[in-house]
């Protein structure tokens, strides 16, 4: 059950980077949503390689096909299978991976776990696996449009290494995010980030950063304590993405440096609605949304693949040295932005349906 | 399904702070483990109120009873129900909560979600809920002793507000943690923390901090990509605890400021075993343990209950002011240490059994 | 996960016949249902031993207590724990079971599975386990009253050994069922059955039969193909009850002797509603309710406990002979009627909530 | 979650009869099993249309493709996706189904449930859906070969209408079953059945029957009481197949006519192993296998599609008449034999892995 996510809107992803293809099956999608392959392709294009000069130059079209669950342009309520066939890649690029473990990749752990691994391009541990998530999330967003009209999910690059953008999460738009190739809505910092990523790449190195995600317009009442608190599910969702090392909601780690009298969000009435004067809670209290914006920050480590020689061991336990060849992302964050958005959408739609199921 | 956790070792917790009692049902526990109420009580005593001068003075014995699943001192493989009956508390202390929402508590969100709430003492949102988790984890630890002899889970207070302890996670012991009432294994900083908590309490305020948790001795191969990666399940586990706002594994947010060449953990052979020279991965690669120690850090916000007047609204939407009365923790961290340990144990036992099921 | 049932309205039962007690935790119950211990006790009393002269004379009050999830007489939406404490029984009655396996009981298989068993009174395999199911179903029925007003579940004894009752399932009422101690709404046959059961008991033997269950008033649209078809979940529910050996829906096994032209249910309009002229489908088509009454029949084998010497083996593999002592049911069917009803209610409420979740 | 089956070996099927294709994703398969498309194709060919003169003459090759989870001929432990693309069918054959509900089909109930349906060829309710199940079961059988060497599952047609075969379930082989097109291992009765099916078809009518399934060679100890008893999971598995109306295990409904003294299976030692002298329990006691052969019988109703005019209503509620055209099975049983086998294999592998997970 390792490759399933969600309770009510449950997705099952499948596929290795080098094999027949990758995809997803969605079970529990509400019926009668308008859905086309173009709806899904739009988001897949935002995560695909080759889309800009700061991501891997590998050129994969990642063309999706809906194989089931849709009839005459509408969802049927039955399982939706979306597949992206793999194009034949360059397996020869990966020969060294057959015999040695790449540092800080999953080669060794997959071998230790299963006693076998698809060593071509990372196999199941490749970020190519996230195609299924992004495809499913495109469907989730369609459902959310009906379940919570006005709900918006906007993710963006907040920091790259030491470069930090200034962004107003109350107002930031996806258009601003998409206005540059690093997906940072602070234009000046975006340019700095782009230049820095290029420089790091030219040095054969890689770099990480943080993505912030804001969710505006959720109704109060989503979240299933005590274990499926909405921040717990969001944390799991984000920490299941490749390369993530940290997760924060609301005040996050910085909130540990405040006193209760500074941190508490006073309640006030506003246009007949219960609101909070501040929002250090980040839109969630007791694991349930309170209607205020939800703020998340996710830490992504620098890409493990670098073009410098690295010390490692072979599958038979001998010391050796590896140096990456081929085409890789010097920084995963620009392509991770739609992945973060996708995981947020999958959590939200699941909780929306669960709430409707139990409470009506 | 909000109150269930785990796939193979599945727990179902139940209970409000003021009601018949609280407890847990464990389904899927391996048979023939030695288990007594004393085994469970030991951990419950570490999380109970009234245990020291820096936690709430409320005096609850929290005496547990095993109602099923154990016969002649051994687990049967059938569901284990552990219950702690509530003693009659002081409902009159909570009268104001019936009519107004406490800031940064779950009063408003529970009402918004369910249209009803048990307003006595926080109900299901009370930290009293964690008794079931800690009880279940005492059983999980028994199972882990067999499944992974030598495995150790040690959690401790790493920071309180701005005070930061120096701790060597490779060697820290539970004895060091338990040697003082704040559960910080750096004695000098522990004293500072205790003094600071007392001062904050005297001001009617509260304070937060971070807990670090180290897991030593896991075999390589635990974790279920792509969604049930072990760090994803740990993140969910920790973020489901009351008052948590952030989670890190390995290098965490600080890792975003390193380059790949600095962050990657070189593989080396050591006594015939694959090891890593550094451990910025924090013992997990591709969502699967690699046998190195796992490091986690969890952010806890300052307790929402403070003894200062706060602005809020009534259930009928009128502005009002609330000031806590009664007995409360000025800082949740000392009592949260066994909760963090508990959640780690629950994740580990679940993954151990899942790995055994699929791979043998 | 052996002791959990349901997806949206999920119950976790616990308890052995001789131990602290038995009970259930319900997760996912809709909030704001009126619920009292008396509501639950009513159904528990219908399944308890000692209720009539044809069931076991063991006198257990089976008094339930709601430990959580209810506040001021209403469900909270949080887990509801219901417990029935065991009174100290006569363990000495079971000494022989420690050393030998009772034929057609679960003694041997539990030992083979877990390497341990609670040999006192059947342990987890005792029908006492069904207390948790019946208690949960009392809550389920409360929810169904809101989710599908007018829905009725009526179960009754249809056959005992060769004695077959004549019952009109379209009109039979629970009052008719409860009018006699064998729970058969055909008064003449009921008396025959009672006399026969008494005679069989006097011979130290036991007897089985079939229970029919009719569900009237479901809306069209419940059931989750392709695996959680409503008849599939009903089959699982019934076949999980102790002593069941067969399950039928609609035309059942007899339907295999008809041709398609005889078996098909023609559609007709009736008061603006789609109805079927006949109902050999038994209210279900393609795994989904069509609004017509659902008919089920469940086969119960004769009670395994008999007062005659039987050939068996000891736990150490030696041939021996066993003869039951103590107090037992000569026929489980009268007490199984509320169990069948209970399992039907649990399936229906789960599907009602799932349908509401996905489709609204 | 309607299209998922299994806990540890979990399958997710997808696909409509007329759409992109049908298939399955298997999550939790043990790694390092030899697996090829030919292994799967063998079973798919046994369920495909057009295979003999007594099934539908529709000629679909149903060629499968493994899209993930297998590398160099071995399972990886990652999700296995198997797909069969649909060839373009004759949608014009189904035009009438757009506007009217076929009697005893799922047209009306799907519409009532989802407010939409794929009316081409039955959509998700078509037996074509079982391709995913049969494909997954081919993988399950590979796993069972390792988990329980010697385990055998043999299903066969036991009755067609009033014609009943004589079969010894202790010794019947798959070769005997496959020796004729009706899949009945009693050659004389098989011929009678074939002749009868042809006659019924020539009359434009259809016919049902029962399939018996015997499972030999399970170890003692599989099954997860109290809800996931192995007969409960088998019942659900079988009752989720299209056209099933009844399920029996062991003595079944006939067992209700025996007394306890006749029905109980005495234990005896045989070659150092606990055996039963008789096997009315059908290999299962208390929901757990006892090592004796498991016997199941499943009732299949006559095919709903018949070539006679039938009374029905249109989607707008007007009375009309329908008469099937095109190519259909006059009797589903020959093609249902591999489906029954498949469902048995899926239940067994799931329980084998669950038992290994919990007990080791």
Automatic annotation (TrEMBL), chains A, B, C, D:
Reduced FMN (FMNH(2)). This is Chorismate synthase. It comes from Chthoniobacter flavus Ellin428. Belongs to the chorismate synthase family. Keywords: Amino-acid biosynthesis, Aromatic amino acid biosynthesis, FAD, Flavoprotein, FMN, Lyase, NADP. One of its GO terms (cellular component) is cytosol. It catalyses: 5-O-(1-carboxyvinyl)-3-phosphoshikimate = chorismate + phosphate. This reaction introduces a second double bond into the aromatic ring system. The lineage of its organism: Bacteria, Pseudomonadati, Verrucomicrobiota, Spartobacteria, Chthoniobacterales.
């Amino acid at each position: 059950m390792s490759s399933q996510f969600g309770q009510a809107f449950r997705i099952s992803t499948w596929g290795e980077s080098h094999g027949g293809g990758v995809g997803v099956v969605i079970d529990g999608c509400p019926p009668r949503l308008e859905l086309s392959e173009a709806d899904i392709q739009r988001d897949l294009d935002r995560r695909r390689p080759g889309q800009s000069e700061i991501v891997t130059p590998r050129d994969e079209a990642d063309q999706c096909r809906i194989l089931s669950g849709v009839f005459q342009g509408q969802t049927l309520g039955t399982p939706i299978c979306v597949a992206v066939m793999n194009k034949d890649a360059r397996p020869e690029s990966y020969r060294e991976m057959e015999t040695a473990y790449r540092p800080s990749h999953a080669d060794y752990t997959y071998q230790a776990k299963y006693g076998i691994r698809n060593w071509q391009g990372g196999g199941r541990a490749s970020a190519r696996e996230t195609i299924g998530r992004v495809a499913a999330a495109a469907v989730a967003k369609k459902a959310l449009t009906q379940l919570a009209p006005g709900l918006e999910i906007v993710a963006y690059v907040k920091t790259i290494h030491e470069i930090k953008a200034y962004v107003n999460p109350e107002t930031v738009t996806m258009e601003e995010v998409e206005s540059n190739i690093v997906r940072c809505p602070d234009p000046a910092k975006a340019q700095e980030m782009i230049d820095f990523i290029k420089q790091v790449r030219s040095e054969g190195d890689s770099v990480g950063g943080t993505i912030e995600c804001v969710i505006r317009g959720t109704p109060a009442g989503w979240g299933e304590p005590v274990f499926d608190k909405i921040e717990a599910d969001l944390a799991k969702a984000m920490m299941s993405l490749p390369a993530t090392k940290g997760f924060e909601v609301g005040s996050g780690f910085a909130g540990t440096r405040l006193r209760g009298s500074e941190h508490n969000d006073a309640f006030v009435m506003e246009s007949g609605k219960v609101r909070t004067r501040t929002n250090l809670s980040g839109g969630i209290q007791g694991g349930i949304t309170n209607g205020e914006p939800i703020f998340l920050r996710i830490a992504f480590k620098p890409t493990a693949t670098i073009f410098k020689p690295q010390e490692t061991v072979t599958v038979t336990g001998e010391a050796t040295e590896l140096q990456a060849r081929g085409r890789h992302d010097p920084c995963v964050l620009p392509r991770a932005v739609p992945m973060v958005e996708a995981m947020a959408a999958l959590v939200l739609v699941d909780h929306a349906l669960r709430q409707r199921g139990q409470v009506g």
